[in-house]
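Hi,

I'm pasting everything inline rather than attaching a file, because the server keeps stripping attachments. The sequence lines come first, and each chain or strand is labelled.
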Amino acid sequence: MEKIKVKELDQVVVRFAGDSGDGMQLTGSIFSNISAIIGNEISTFPDYPAEIRAPQGTVGGVSGFQVHIGSGKVYTPGDDADVLVAMNPAALKVNAKHVKKGGVIIFDQDSFEKNDLVKAGFVSDDPFAEMSVSETISLVPAQLTTLTQKSLEGFPLDNKAILRSKNMFALGLICWLFNRPMEQAVHFLGNKFRKKPSVLEANVKVLTDGFNYGYNLHLSVPTYTIEKSDDVPHGKYTSISGNTATAYGFIAAAEKAGLELFLGSYPITPATDIMHELALRRDLGAKVVQCEDEIAGVTTTIGAAFAGCLAVTNTSGPGLALKSEGINLAVMAELPIVIVDVMRSGPSTGMPTKTEQTDLLQALYGRNGESPLVVMAPGTPDDCFHYAYMASKIALEYMTPVILLTDAFLGNGTSLWKLPKLAEMPEIKPNYVQPGMEGCKVTFRNEETKVRYWAIPGTPGFEHRNGGLEKDYEKGSISTDGENHQKMVDTRAQKVENVAAVIPELTVFGAEDADLLVIGWGGTRGHLMSAVSEMNEKGKKVALAHFNYINPLPKNTAEVISKYKKVVVCELNNGQFATFLRSKVPGVNFLQHNKVQGQPFTMAELVEHFELILK
Amino acid sequence: MEEIKQYTPKDFKSDQYVRWCPGCGDYAILNSLQKVMADMGVAPQDIAVISGIGCSSRLPYYINSYGFHTIHGRAAAVATGVKIANPKLTVWQISGDGDGLAIGGNHFIHSVRRNIDINVLLFNNQIYGLTKGQFSPTTKKGMVTKSSPYGTIERPFRPAELTFGARGTFFARLLDVDLKNAQETISAAARHKGTSIVECLVNCVIFNNGAHGWIAEKETRPDRIIFLEHGKPMIYGVNRDKGLMLDGFELKAVTIGENGVTEKDLLVHDAHCEDITLQYKLAMMEGPEMPIAMGVIRDVQTETYDQAMDNQIAEVREKSKIKCFDDLVGSLEQWEI
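And the predicted assembly:
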C-alpha cells in the first residue's frame, strides 16, 4: 500500500470560496468548529459580498471564509492560504493571489467549463496560467458536481437540492486532507438540520463520500496534521463570533445588575446579528424592539434607560451618524445607554460588508456641543463579550452613554471563547438614589465621582423632569445662565474623565527596551500581536501597546508612550487614533501606518513596514 | 386593605412657573390634564410625561410626575421605550403638529401601528410657534407665514387620516376652550388601552390667532361642532335639533322635524366599530355645511405592543430550559481543552 505523506504543521490557513449561494460560510464554520473541538486554536474571517445572490459565477458574487488553525496561539485568520477550495473560476480569480507558495488549490472541475471561465472574466482556457499561479502550488481537480450527483443517486431530491450539497463533498475532502474526525462534522450537521432529516441524511452521505474519495484515491497531495494547542488554559470552550459575544455580554451585565435588558435596533450590515441573538433571548426577558429607523433605535433605548432598563442599541457607521442627536440627549440627560457600532467601510454606504476603523472620530466627537462620552473597543471576537459587559458596567455606574466600537472583522469573525460563569464577573452597582434622599433634584450627584443619582420612575418621592435643555447645577430646573452652563459642561467632562480610575492601566507586549513601540486599538490586536511576535522572533526590538479603552485613555498612557524613541500608530483608517493621541499626549512624534481597503492588516505588510521604520 | 389615595389636580402641579404666552390654548389642556390625572388616581411616581420640542413640549415641566423633555420629533419613540421598559407606568406623550407630524412623522405612524399603550396629546395649532411662525404640516393651504410669504403651496395632513392610515385604535378631538368636553375626551384617552391619539385644537395667539375660529365662539359653537358619544344618536345644535344621517354613501346634516326627519332616523355613534368607514367620514367633516366632529371618534380594543411583548416573554420563558446566563452558556456547543 502506498504510504500517505503527512505534513506536520503548527499552523495552517484554509480558505473556502464559492458563489454566495454555495454554502461556503457553513462549510468554513463547521471545519473551524471541528478543529477547535480537537484542540486547535482557531480564528476565522468570513469575507462575503453585500449582494445576497449576485449573478452566479461572477466575481462580484464570490463569498469566502478563511480559517486559521494552529497548535500554538492563533491571533488572526492569517494572511495567505495554505489550501484554497475554489468552487468556480470566479472564486479562483478573487483568491488565487492569496495562496502561499507550496500550497494547494482544490477546485470543482465541473465548474471550470468554457462558459464558467467566461462568466468569471477569463479570456483563455487556462485560468491558472492567466492568474500566474505558482508552479509550486499543487492543483487538485475534483469533479465535485458529478461526484455529488453520483453520491445522491436514488435520493428523493431534485437536481437543485443535490447541487446545493456539493459544499459537503468539499468539506469531506478537506476533513480527509487535515485528518479531521468525521463524527464531529456529522454532529454539527445534525444540529444544523435537526428539523430536516432528509436534508441531513443527504448531507452526511455526501460528506462521507467526499472524505472517502480523498482517502481511496490517495490524491497526490500531502495531508496535514496540526497538534493540539498547549497554549490554551484548561477549561470549557466554544467558538464564538464577535457579534454573538457582544450580545452575550449585555445579557450577562443585565442579569448581574438585576435589570431588564432592552435593545432598540434597526437592521444594518454588519451589526444585525447582535439583534438576532438578543431577539432569541425572550426566555431571559430581553426586550428587543426592531424600530422604524436608526433614530428610533437610539431614542427608544433612551426611553428604556430613563425607565430603568440596561438599555442598548446597535448599529454601524451610517446608523451612528443618524443616532448622534439621540446620543447627545443621553449625554445631557446623563442616562446610561450603550451604543455598539460594528464599524464598516465608509463614507456613506461605502462597502457595507467590509471592515474598517473609520468611525473613531465620529464616536469621539460627532455631536453638537461639548459632548464627551466613554469610547471602548474590543480586540478579538471573544473579547467582545468582556467589553460589552464592561461598557454596560461603566454606563450604569457612571450614568453616561458608552460607545463600543467593534468592526465587521470582529463581528463576523470567530475565535475560541473560554466559557465564563456569571459569579466570576465583576459586580455592577448602578448609582441609584438612596432612601433619605427624597426630593433630590435631577442634577444631584456624588460630588466626588460627579455621577448623577439615578431615580427610576415608579419610585415615590423622586419625581423629576429630565431633558435636553441645560439644567441648573443645584436646582435641576432649566437654566440659560452662562456660568452655570460652564460648570455643567465641566462636570459632565470630569465625570467621563473619572472613569479612568476604574479601567486597567496600559500594558506593553513584546520586547523590553524596544526600539519601536507599535500602537493599535480595537480589532487589529491579533494582526499587530502576530507581527510584533514575528519581529521579536527575528530579534528585532519591537513592542505593542494596544488600546481597548479610548476615552478616557488609561491613566499611564503618556508615561508609557514617552519611554520610546519611535512610536507608530497602526489603524484601518487615515490616522484617527493618531490624531486623538496627538491631542492627548503632546510632544511625541507619532508615525502612522494606515490602510483603508476594507480588509484587515496582513502580517506581511506590518512586518515590512516595521522593518522599514527600524532601518 | 390599602387605602386608595384621593388626588387633587394640585398634586400634579410642579413647582415650575408656567411660561406660555398669555392666552395660549396650551394652558387649558394642561389644566384639563391635571384634572384627569387626579380623577384617574394614578400616583405621580407612576406617571411619565414625555415630550419632544416645541411650545407644547414644555408641558412635562409643569406636571408633578416623572417627565422627560426630549428632542425634536422623538417623543413617540422615547415614550415607546419607556412603556416597553415598564408597562406599569402610565405614559403620556406631548407633541405639537410640527414635532409629531413633520420631524416625528415616522415615529408617530409606527407607534400608532404598534398600538403601544401611550396617551398622545397632539397639540395642533397649525403653526410652528417656538421658531416664530413657519407653516407646519397641518397649516391650511395658501396661508401666509414667515416661510410662506406668498402662501403655502402644500396640502396639509389631517391627523385623523394619518391615524386611521396607521391602523389606529383610538382617535379623539378636542378644542382648547371647550373645557368640559376636553376633560371628558382626555379621560377616555387615558382609559383606552393602546395608542390614544387626541388631536387638541389649540389657538396660537401670536402666530396663528383664530386658526380654529370657526368653532371658537361659545354662542355659535353648538351649531358648528358635534360632540360624539358612543351609543348616542348624532345630535347637535344650540337647540339640539340638528343631526347626522346617511344619504347613500355620504353623511348629511339634517334638522329634526324638517322633511319628516325624526330622532330615530339619525345615526347612532359606534366608536367601537372595527370598520373605519363611518368614523373616517365623521372625522373628515368640515364646515360650514357639516359640523366638526369632536370627542371620541374611534375607540377599539386590540392587543397592545407592550402587552404582546410581555405575553411572548412569558410564553417563551415557560417553554425554555434557559433560565439565566449560566444556562445560556451551558446550552452552547462546547468542549473541554
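The CA atoms of residues 97 and 124 of chain B lie 5 Å apart.

If the labels don't parse on your end, tell me and I'll reformat.
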